[in-house]
Structure formats: structure tokens, C-alpha cells
């Protein structure tokens, strides 16, 4: 596929109300020092197939080479340039959608411009090649298949992602909006996971694994924003729901325990006594 011509671009069917809508995709062997600028009204993800170049974000210039990906958000100024000696050949995909931002942040760690290397270049190249084939052949249902491949690409980023404290350090100042936004994004995702799963036997490790970042980093940013630990947040939520269910008197105490994530009643009773100074059986009576 990559031995075809120097470049091509394909345009997909536009569905404005879709969760994620692939707009176009393409690839190009850039001439030396070719520069791209301006802004776009969509997300723009690039994957470098060979060669290299530089990407500028704010005052930071990053060197990009084969196997690296970088992505710009809507209305974010573009500034990237092919190397003068070994100019890059890259693939790109532009997309929008009602959940595009959420999906991309989940896949890329939340930063407005992310740069990282995929550990399996052959896998990523294969996905982009499949995407181009779908767009070029345009068989029945090609648009749906193409969007499925785009989601696979974003899923690969999510699986390849390790830990982002190095990209946005915990000691970054509140004046850095990118760092603050990323920390808030992680904390909101942790809270959403807990609120959706507190009825199950989840632990702090489950929360951290769901987000996919380092546990100590997750704990620090959660405490910084919420002024309590992840464990404390989980306990507080479970106890709040337990008090509500006990007050309603619709369930047995054992089933109240099960409804807030405690399969073992003894553990629930012990925790309830620690938090309220009395047994769940005496609640809400004084």
C-alpha cells in the first residue's frame, strides 16, 4: 500500500450527529521542510510511517519520527514541519462527533496535544492501510467499517498508553491549564467509575486500573482536588447510600450491605460502626 503513489486523500460520509464521525483520511510523502499551519474545526490525528519532522506546541518543539503519533484538537493552532534531510511520510485522519473529544481523551491521556510512540508499528500501519482500502474501494457499508477501524486505532492508543505523569508532571503549576485540565479529567473519570461501580466489590486498584495511570500519581491528584483519598471517597459514597437504604427500610440489613458493595455482612457492620459509632441495625433510630 505504501509503495503506491506519493499521497492520497479520501473523504468519508458525513453524519453530524454520530458519536464519532470519520471525515477524511490520507497519507503523503512530504517534501523536505514542508510546513503545515492554521487551525481546523475537527480532530486531526497523524501517524508517522517513515522519516521525521518537528511538531511545535506553545513554546515546545518536539522531534517526531517513524512510529510516533500526534493529534491536534479543534481550533488548536497547527505547526509541524518535515525534516530537511529525511522528511516524513505520514498518515492522517480527521474526525468529529458528539463523543469524539471524550473518546480521544480516554485513548490519548487527555492532553490537548499528545505525542507518543506505538509499540507495534506494524499493527498501526495495518489499521491505517485497512482504513485507506475501505475508503478507496467504497464497498457497501464502507463508512461504518471505516469508523470501526478508527475506533480500533484509538483503542490501540489506549492499550499502548502506560503512564502520563511524565508528560504532565504532578508538580506542574495550576497556571498551566493543560496540566490542570488533565488532572481534573483523570479525577472526574475516577469518580465516575466509583459512582457507577460502588455496588460491586471494587478497590482502589480497580479504579486506578480503569484509568490506566500510575497508582501513586492517581492518589496524589485525587487528594489534591477532592481533599480526600480515593478510598475515603469510596467509603463515603457507600455509607451515604447505606444510610439512605436503611432509612427507607425496604431491604434487610444484609441486602443493604450487598447493595453498597459489601458481600460480607460482618465487614459492612464493622465499617458502619467505625463511621457512625453504632450498628446498622440501630439506624435510623437514635
Architecture overview:
By secondary structure, the chain is an alpha+beta fold. The protein has 3 domains: 7-160, Jelly Rolls, CATH 2.60.120; 177-227; 233-282, Arc Repressor Mutant, subunit A (Orthogonal Bundle), CATH 1.10.10. Helix content is 43%, strand content 21%. It contains 9 helices and 10 strands. Strands 1-2-9-4-7-10 form a 6-stranded antiparallel beta sheet, covered by helices on one side. The chain has a 4-stranded antiparallel beta sheet with strand order 3-8-5-6, with no helix packed on it. The chain starts with 6 loop residues before the first strand and ends in a 10-residue tail after the last helix.
Layout of helices and strands:
Elements: E1 7-11, E2 21-29, E3 35-38, E4 43-50, E5 52-57, E6 60-65, E7 68-72, E8 78-82, E9 89-96, H1 100-108, E10 114-117, H2 121-137, H3 142-160, H4 177-197, H5 204-211, H6 215-226, H7 230-248, H8 253-259, H9 265-276
Antiparallel strand pairs: 1-2, 2-9, 3-8, 4-7, 4-9, 5-6, 5-8, 7-10
Helix pairs in contact: 1-3, 2-3, 4-5, 4-6, 4-7
Outline the low-pLDDT stretches. 162-178
Multimer state: single chain
Secondary-structure element pattern, one letter each? EEEEEEEEEHEHHHHHHHH
- The CATH architecture assignment of the largest domain turns out to be Sandwich
Instruction: Evaluate the radius of gyration.
Output: 24 Å
C-alpha end-to-end distance = 75 Å
Strand arrangement within the widest β-sheet reads 1-2-9-4-7-10
CATH class designation of the largest domain: Mainly Beta
Structural class: alpha+beta
Overall strand count: 10
Largest beta sheet, briefly?
Answer: 6 strands, antiparallel
Amino acid at each position: 500500500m505504501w509503495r503506491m503513489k506519493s499521497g492520497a486523500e479520501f473523504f468519508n460520509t458525513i453524519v453530524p450527529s454520530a458519536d464519532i464521525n470519520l471525515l477524511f483520511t490520507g497519507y503523503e510523502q512530504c517534501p523536505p521542510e514542508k510546513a503545515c499551519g492554521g487551525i481546523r474545526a475537527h480532530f486531526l490525528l497523524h501517524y508517522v510511517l517513515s522519516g521525521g519532522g518537528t511538531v511545535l506546541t506553545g513554546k515546545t518543539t518536539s522531534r517526531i519520527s517513524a512510529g510516533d503519533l500526534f493529534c491536534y484538537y479543534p481550533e488548536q493552532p497547527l505547526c509541524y514541519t518535515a525534516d530537511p534531510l529525511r522528511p516524513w511520510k505520514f498518515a492522517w485522519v480527521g474526525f468529529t462527533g458528539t463523543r469524539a473529544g471524550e473518546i480521544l481523551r480516554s485513548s490519548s491521556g487527555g492532553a490537548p496535544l499528545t505525542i507518543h510512540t506505538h509499540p507495534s508499528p506494524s499493527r498501526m500501519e495495518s489499521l491505517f492501510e485497512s482504513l485507506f482500502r475501505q475508503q478507496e474501494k467504497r464497498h457497501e457499508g464502507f463508512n461504518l467499517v471505516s469508523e470501526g477501524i478508527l475506533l480500533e486505532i484509538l483503542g490501540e492508543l489506549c492499550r499502548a498508553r502506560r503512564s502520563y505523569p511524565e508528560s504532565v508532571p504532578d508538580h506542574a503549576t495550576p497556571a498551566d491549564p493543560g496540566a490542570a485540565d488533565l488532572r481534573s479529567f483523570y479525577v472526574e473519570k475516577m469518580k465516575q467509575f466509583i459512582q457507577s461501580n460502588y455496588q460491586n466489590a471494587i478497590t482502589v486498584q480497580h479504579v486506578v486500573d480503569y484509568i490506566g495511570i500510575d497508582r501513586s500519581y492517581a492518589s496524589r491528584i485525587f487528594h489534591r482536588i477532592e481533599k480526600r483519598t480515593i478510598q475515603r471517597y469510596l467509603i463515603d459514597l457507600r455509607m451515604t447510600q447505606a444510610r439512605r437504604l436503611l432509612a427507607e427500610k425496604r431491604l434487610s440489613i444484609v441486602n443493604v450491605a450487598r447493595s453498597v458493595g459489601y458481600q460480607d455482612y460482618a465487614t459492612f457492620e464493622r465499617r458502619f460502626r467505625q463511621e457512625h459509632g453504632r450498628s446498622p441495625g440501630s439506624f435510623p433510630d437514635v
